Amino acid sequence: MEYIKSSEFQLHNSAVALGKFEGIHLGHQLLLHEILKQKENGLSSVVFTFDLPPKVVLSGDKTYSQIFTKDERRLFLERQGIDVLLEHPFTPEFAALTPEEFIEKVLVEKADAKVIVVGADFHFGKKRSGNVNNLREAASKYGYELIVLEKKQDMGLDISSTRIRELLSYGRMEEVKELLGRNYSVYGEVVHGRALGRTIDIPTINQIVEDIKMVPPNGVYVSLIHIGDETYQGVTNIGTKPTVNAGNVKGVETNIFDFNGDLYGKKVEVELLHFCRAEMKFSGVEALKAQMQSDIQFAKKYFQ
Q1: Burial of 247 by CB count in 10 Å (0-12 exposed, 13-18 middle, 19+ buried)?
Q2: What is the pLDDT of residues 71-103, one digit of tens each?
Q3: Residues 179-212 pLDDT 10s
């Protein structure tokens, strides 16, 4: 997959899906399906999104969090067979483009869009003044085909990133999976921890969570771990490890069942399947070890 992070680009014969694609949930995947179908017509499948959420840039809100990071989004789209991921810089100059300027200068001239796919509620251009009507009116002028998709629903409600974030905040991982069409996951490099797990015969790997990524409540989760082409079962703790740490840096620590390899410096994907219990502070290392052993047994029964 070609990965573009610049406003200077030139594509040819493209089928372009437009959107924020933050969680790439089942609703977003309808758009992906449409552009992937266009590959049969000789068009490149292109996801056009932004390097940062427009809301963050326009409001300066540094507390805003995303379901998946840019690396995680990129990994998923690559697996789907998307040809080009374009993360356009969301600059003040770009935000000032009128809907007509965006269509002509970006979609037509730079992206060479022959097919454009959007959701019915898609807005774009200066102060979000453009909508599907603008795209529809310009289609005959510029010769592209416009495909507009209605929101996908679940249980009578729209599937949305907002709804997923709410479920995620309560650790309702099974319901999150229903809306994403896959398990929520954390993808990142394995870093050095305190190596306490090895001293108590429960080795773990540690990952640092990006500040912009939304994570479920601190606690213990049944997990699946993807290392290269192999998948392992495990149990994961999200939190600050209050029994052994004095700080408040949040991390992801995973015990991988039946694995003894060295993963330092490698990128690993950890899927969170089920919330087991909240993070706790124990009286000491022995009490922590006993609870970790109990968590491992719970996870193994879960998989059975």
Answers
A1: exposed
A2: 999 999 999 999 999 999 998 899 999 999 999
A3: 999 999 999 999 987 666 666 678 899 998 888 8
Indicate the SS3 state at residue 182.
Answer: coil
SS3 state at 296: helix
Phi/psi of residue 44, nearest 5 degrees: -80, 135
Token pair belonging to 167:
């479920």
Find the largest Cα–Cα distance for the chain: 72
Give φ, ψ of 184 to 5 degrees: -60, 140
Give the E-state strand segments of 105-150 in sequence order: 113-119, 145-149
Helix (H, G, I), strand (E, B) or coil at 132: helix
Decide if 47 contacts 32 (C-beta within 8 A): yes
Instruction: For residue 52, give both structure tokens.
Output: 């940062």
Task: Count CB neighbours of 140 within 10 A.
Answer: 9
Residue showing tokens 């921890």: 193
Whole-model pTM: value is 0.90
> What is the structure's pLDDT at 10?
98
Please report which residue ranges of 50-160 form alpha helices under DSSP H: 54-59, 70-80, 92-95, 99-101, 132-142
Indicate the SS3 state at residue 152: coil
